[in-house]
């Protein structure tokens, strides 16, 4: 039995009852059960978020009650958990668009405030060492901020007012015990005063003063992260006293830790960097730094980054601050470029700064610390980014309330409403700013390349043994070269739209004798000369290979030109890397193969390297390599080549070998990459993604489909148990996996391939064409000898309908429908289309429709059936989701659906019937589903009519396809006896079609039966009976049906006759004048005795039907 929202309410009520009894643990258990139910059912997003936030608030209340009853240290961690849970509940509540959330938000803020205050008080009472005094004060300050937010919209909350007064007193007491002055207006100001008092004492007691400074800095940093605007205002007070102190601590030589560390400098630079999210603070900070360093802060940052004496944390803090300053400078420039017609740039100053940025980035990229190298790439990205606001929005310190730019961008609606003159001015200013942005990025990129930055970036990648770092460097190199390239350059003789400057940079990098590395650059001089020489050659080849890869990924045309025109000996160098037995070099070769296979112009080049005939060929060497990075790149190339031109063999043994490679890549061993992070998903998952990519090619093969359905296993899971490919794919589809959009699309495509046969795909390809599949096959076979035709016949795909049905059942059992539901959330158009295509194909199998409903497929299809202005692609997705609803509901008992599903399905189905672009099959199945729903109860009938179902169904009755006409007639019949349907049929013009359908029983028996059934029910109404008299074909129709001898039709028309007789008057006269009464008399006299019936040799069922018609005739 599917769970519904009422089950949530029941579990919540049980939890409330346990809470009233004082059974807090049982109450928590019931609330948690309710949250689990919410995760398993499909409800509207608002209802789900509100219910979940309410339940979390209730659990928090129980936890608080438990903590109040205990006084030992065991209560501290639960309080931390309460704070985290309520914070997440508030985030969930923020997504609710309904306006009636103030009461719930008030509860959450009050309980989080109380939890924070209780935690601080218990720490103080128990003298627990896990939190320092400044953090306790920060907890109290945050608790007060919660109450202030609460009272801003619920000022009459007495409990909040009382708690606020108690908190203020406790905070003052704590500050006095910590030796902090309480005369200031805020804890942040008090911390700054405390810091000033200590630093003015010139660190007389170094150990004691160090601890106090450290605590104050931690508090200041936490305050900035909590509210950057107010905290920055405190730093700006008294001629930026706070900011100057942080600069002195961060970049002064006096503030060294007790063990010679730089903890204070790290915290100070982090405070400065975080505060730079506030533009006014950043502008004044630049003035202070220019004064302190004589306008040469970049040299100071370079010294810090290139020094080996500083910790990685301090170097990252300095780089982060530099990135903030760059972004601020770019925003300021953009504002000026937007408003000014022209300006003179300080070219010498700009070039000097840009060269220093190159030095800083290069020093960071050469760092021995991984986190510093990553920050170096971030700095390079910020420096080259055309729109600095993108960098700000991507940073953790972004605050939507802060206006970073003085130019307020108009909304789309505002742009549409502009008068022509204002619109022209807006477009001119925007184009001017965008042009300046592009030129700035290009100038910076060129300086970076010409100053040795490009070579440093490639060297860092080539000398790294970590695949994730090489990948990051490749992507950033590609972006760098895209900035260098001048898009406006005319095409030259080589038909390449690349300017001469870009060509020179490419040629210089690929030149045979340029940028040779020394032995020391490779191994520090520790290897012997011969081995070092080999490594130098490998690194040199790797740099070319990685550079070519980056060009192919960033701009295929430019990469193809470089491969063909300026990379001499590309084939031999690539093979040298692939055969080197050096995993890093082999990985570079496989990455290049993957990139080349993805471009049309270079695909033949790499395709010629595929040696499918040799058992020990180079390609097989890459695919069979022990290193997952190497295998993943080669697998990606195979997938791309296979999808593009089928150059990979379809031999069964080779397909299974490739499937085994893909399965191995899916088995992600995260413990092998503990510190590896990807900028988009947070984890480095390139091998896994390449495994999915390879599967997207292989899943089109019937042999592979069957292997996957039969449980082809991914070697072993982390627990040592076999894990099938299907199980792994479902796990990847979980929202918690945080996979990239491209992998979401690939997963949906794989599921769509598994749920269809090749024959079905071929038939779909000929839908709407002037030629059928059979005609096409006949044309192809013409002129071919019998032997060739027989050979082709033997090679035909062996996938059958039974095999497909079995496969779909396995997919449903492994929760593939739920995986597709997950993939469709927040998906791109391409992924949505593939996901709903897979659902539509699975819905063809009747046995899994119930399971699909339980796994949320019906609900997600209802959500996807949106209305409004849609693109052509979106319309196709909506139509496909509507068709999936129709398929699911054709045979589903409506009583198994919840109210939301039942009522929510009606509008999409009627929209599909109305859609001029929907096929006859789609209309037919939608009408059958409407028929099913209309038969359920009066509520569904009312909803169908409310959605203007009668006009839509009536229009469908005039379809050219007889099956659509029949289904529409049956759907209309099931709306009887709704008053609106009766009213519709009282119009004799609308009733004519029903009489016509009833007469056409020889050509469309089912449609005639449905029409007569409707007339039998509706003629009980006097006005409908009168309308029937006005139709000239009524008498011939009755006569023809009675003479047809079909007992089903006779039964229905005799009921119509009885209804007419019972109305009397003209209706009764019509029956007599049409000869129907005489027919009934003769019919009864002939067949009421047993002998005549026996002569007809009817079955027992027919005899029973005949007895009914005889009784009606009597």
Produce the secondary structure layout.
Layout lengths: L4 H17 L2 H17 L4 H24 L7 H19 L7 H25 L6 H21 L4 H20 L9 H14 L5 H21 L1 H24 L11 H13 L3 H15 L3 H10 L5 H28 L7 H19 L4 H15 L3 H7 L17 H5 L3 H31 L2 H10 L4 H18 L15 H11 L8 H5 L5 H26 L1 H11 L3 H9 L4 H15 L5 H5 L10 H6 L4 H18 L6 H15 L19 H13 L3 H8 L3 E2 L8 E2 H9 L7 H14 L3 H8 L7 H9 L4 H9 L6 H13 L2 H9 L4 H14 L6 H6 L2 H8 L7 H18 L9 H6 L1 H9 L5 H15 L3 H9 L2 H8 L5 H12 L5 H7 L2 H12 L5 H14 L3 H8 L4 H11 L2 H17 L1 H9 L2 H12 L2 H6 L4 H14 L1
Antiparallel strand pairs: 1-2
Helix pairs in contact: 1-2, 2-3, 3-4, 3-5, 4-5, 5-6, 5-7, 6-7, 6-9, 8-9, 8-10, 9-10, 9-11, 10-11, 10-12, 11-14, 13-14, 13-15, 14-16, 14-17, 14-19, 15-16, 15-20, 16-21, 19-21, 20-21, 20-24, 21-24, 24-25, 24-26, 24-27, 26-27, 27-30, 30-31, 30-32, 31-32, 32-35, 34-40, 35-41, 40-41, ...
Q: What this model shows, in words?
A:
The protein has 1114 residues and is mainly alpha-helical. Helices cover 72% and strands 0% of the residues. The chain has a two-stranded antiparallel ribbon. A hairpin with an 8-residue loop joins strand 1 and strand 2. The longest helix has 31 residues, at 420-450. The two termini are 48 Å apart.
- The rounded Rg comes to 38 Å
The number of helical runs is: 60
Overall 3D form: globular
State the strand order across the main sheet: 1-2
Question: Summary?
Answer:
The chain has 1114 residues and is an all-alpha fold.
Task: Give structural attributes.
1114 residues, mainly alpha, 2 strands
């Amino acid at each position: 039995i599917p769970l519904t929202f009422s089950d949530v309410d029941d579990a919540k009520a049980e939890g409330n009852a346990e809470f009233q009894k004082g059974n807090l643990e049982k109450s928590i258990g019931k609330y948690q059960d309710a949250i689990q139910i919410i995760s398993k059912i499909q409800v509207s997003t608002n209802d789900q978020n509100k219910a979940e936030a309410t339940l979390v608030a209730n659990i928090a209340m129980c936890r608080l009650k438990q903590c109040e009853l205990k006084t030992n240290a065991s209560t501290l961690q639960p309080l931390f958990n309460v704070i985290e849970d309520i914070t997440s509940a508030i985030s969930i509540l923020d997504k609710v668009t309904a306006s009636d959330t103030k009461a719930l938000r008030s509860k959450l803020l009050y309980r989080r405030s109380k939890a924070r205050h209780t935690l601080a008080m218990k720490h103080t009472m128990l003298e627990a060492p896990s939190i320092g005094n400044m953090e306790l004060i920060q907890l109290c300050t945050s608790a007060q901020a919660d109450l202030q937010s609460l009272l801003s919209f619920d000022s009459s909350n007495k409990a909040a007012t009382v708690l606020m007064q108690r908190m203020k007193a406790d905070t003052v007491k704590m500050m006095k015990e910590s030796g902090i002055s309480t005369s200031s207006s805020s804890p942040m100001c008090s911390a700054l005063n405390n810091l000033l008092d200590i630093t003015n004492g010139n660190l007389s007691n170094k150990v004691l003063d160090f601890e106090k400074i450290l605590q104050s800095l931690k508090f200041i940093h936490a305050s900035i992260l909590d509210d950057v605007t107010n905290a920055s205002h405190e730093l700006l007070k008294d001629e930026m006293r706070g900011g100057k102190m942080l600069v002195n601590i961060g970049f002064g030589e006096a503030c060294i830790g007790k063990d010679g560390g730089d903890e204070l400098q790290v915290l100070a630079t982090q405070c400065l960097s975080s505060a730079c999210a506030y533009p006014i603070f950043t502008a004044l900070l630049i003035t202070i730094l220019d004064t302190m360093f004589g306008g040469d802060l970049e040299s100071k940052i370079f010294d810090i980054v290139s020094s080996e004496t500083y910790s990685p944390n301090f170097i990252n803090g300095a780089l982060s601050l530099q990135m903030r300053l760059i972004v601020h400078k770019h925003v300021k420039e953009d504002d000026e470029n937007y408003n000014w017609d022209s300006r003179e740039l300080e070219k010498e100053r700009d070039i000097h700064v840009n060269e220093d940025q190159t030095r800083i980035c290069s020093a960071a990229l050469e760092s021995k610390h991984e986190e510093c190298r990553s920050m170096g790439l971030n700095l390079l990205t910020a420096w080259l980014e055309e729109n600095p606001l993108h960098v700000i929005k991507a940073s953790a310190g972004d605050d939507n309330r802060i206006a970073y730019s003085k130019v307020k961008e108009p909304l789309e609606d505002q742009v549409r409403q502009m008068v022509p003159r204002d619109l022209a001015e807006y477009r001119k200013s925007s184009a001017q700013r965008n042009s300046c942005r592009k030129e700035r990025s290009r100038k910076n990129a060129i300086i970076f390349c010409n100053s040795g930055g490009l070579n440093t970036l490639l060297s860092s990648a080539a000398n790294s043994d970590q695949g994730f770092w090489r990948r990051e460097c490749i992507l950033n190199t590609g972006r760098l070269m895209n900035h260098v390239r001048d898009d406006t350059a005319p095409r030259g003789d080589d038909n390449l739209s690349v300017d001469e400057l870009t060509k020179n940079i490419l040629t210089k990098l690929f030149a045979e004798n340029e940028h040779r590395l020394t032995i020391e650059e490779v191994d520090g001089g520790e290897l012997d000369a011969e081995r070092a020489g080999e490594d130098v050659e490998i690194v040199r080849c790797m740099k070319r290979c990685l550079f070519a890869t980056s060009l192919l990924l960033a701009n295929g045309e430019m990469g193809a030109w470089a491969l063909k025109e300026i990379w001499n000996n590309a084939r031999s160098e690539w093979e040298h890397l692939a055969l080197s037995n050096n995993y890093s070099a082999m990985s570079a070769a496989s990455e290049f193969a993957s990139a080349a296979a993805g471009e049309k112009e270079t695909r033949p080049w790499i395709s010629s390297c595929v040696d499918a005939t040799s058992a020990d060929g180079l390609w097989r060497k890459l695919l069979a390599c022990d290193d997952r990075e190497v295998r993943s790149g080669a697998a990606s190339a195979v997938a791309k080549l296979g999808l593009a031109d089928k150059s990979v063999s379809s031999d069964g043994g080779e397909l299974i070998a490739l499937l085994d490679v893909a399965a191995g890549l899916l088995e992600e061993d995260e413990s092998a990459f503990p510190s590896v992070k990807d900028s988009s998903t947070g984890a480095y998952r390139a091998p896994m993604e390449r495994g999915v990519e390879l599967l997207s090619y292989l899943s089109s093969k019937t042999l592979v489909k069957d292997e996957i359905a039969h449980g082809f296993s991914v070697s072993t899971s982390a627990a040592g148990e076999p894990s099938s490919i299907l199980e792994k794919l479902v796990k990847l589809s979980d929202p918690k996996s945080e996979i990239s959009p491209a992998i979401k699309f690939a997963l949906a495509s794989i599921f769509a391939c598994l749920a269809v046969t090749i024959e079905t795909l071929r038939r779909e390809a000929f839908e709407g064409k002037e030629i059928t599949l059979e005609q096409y096959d006949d044309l192809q076979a013409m002129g071919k000898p019998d032997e060739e035709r027989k050979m082709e016949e033997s090679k035909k795909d062996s996938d059958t309908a039974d095999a497909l049905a079995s496969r779909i059942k396995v997919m449903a059992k492994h929760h593939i429908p739920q995986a597709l539901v997950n993939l469709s959330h927040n998906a791109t158009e391409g992924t949505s289309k593939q996901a709903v295509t897979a659902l539509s194909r699975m819905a063809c199998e009747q046995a899994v429709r119930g399971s699909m409903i339980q796994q949320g497929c019906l609900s997600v299809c209802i959500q996807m059936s949106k209305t409004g202005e849609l693109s052509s692609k979106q319309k196709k997705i909506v139509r496909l989701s509507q068709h999936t609803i129709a398929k699911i509901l054709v045979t589903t008992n409506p009583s198994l659906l919840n109210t939301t599903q039942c009522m929510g399905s009606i509008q999409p189905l009627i929209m599909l019937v109305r859609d001029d672009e929907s096929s006859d099959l789609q209309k037919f199945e939608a009408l059958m589903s409407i028929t099913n729903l209309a038969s359920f109860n009066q509520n569904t009938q009312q909803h169908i009519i409310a959605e203007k179902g009668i006009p839509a169904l009536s229009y469908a009755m005039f379809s050219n396809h007889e099956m659509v006409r029949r289904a529409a007639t049956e759907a209309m019949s099931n709306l009887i006896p709704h008053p609106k349907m009766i009213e519709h049929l009282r119009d004799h013009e609308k009733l004519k079609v029903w009489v016509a359908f009833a007469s056409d029983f020889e050509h469309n028996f089912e449609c005639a039966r449905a029409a007569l059934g409707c007339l039998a029910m509706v003629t009980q109404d006097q006005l409908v009976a009168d309308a029937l008299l006005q139709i000239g074909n009524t008498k011939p129709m009755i006569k023809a049906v009675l003479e047809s001898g079909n007992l089903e039709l006779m039964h229905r028309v005799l009921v119509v006759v009885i209804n007419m007789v019972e109305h009397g008057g003209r209706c009764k006269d019509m029956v007599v004048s049409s000869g129907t009464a005489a027919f009934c008399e003769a019919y009864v006299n002939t067949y009421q005795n047993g002998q005549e019936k026996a002569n007809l040799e009817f079955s027992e069922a027919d005899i029973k039907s005949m007895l009914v018609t005889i009784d009606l005739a009597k």
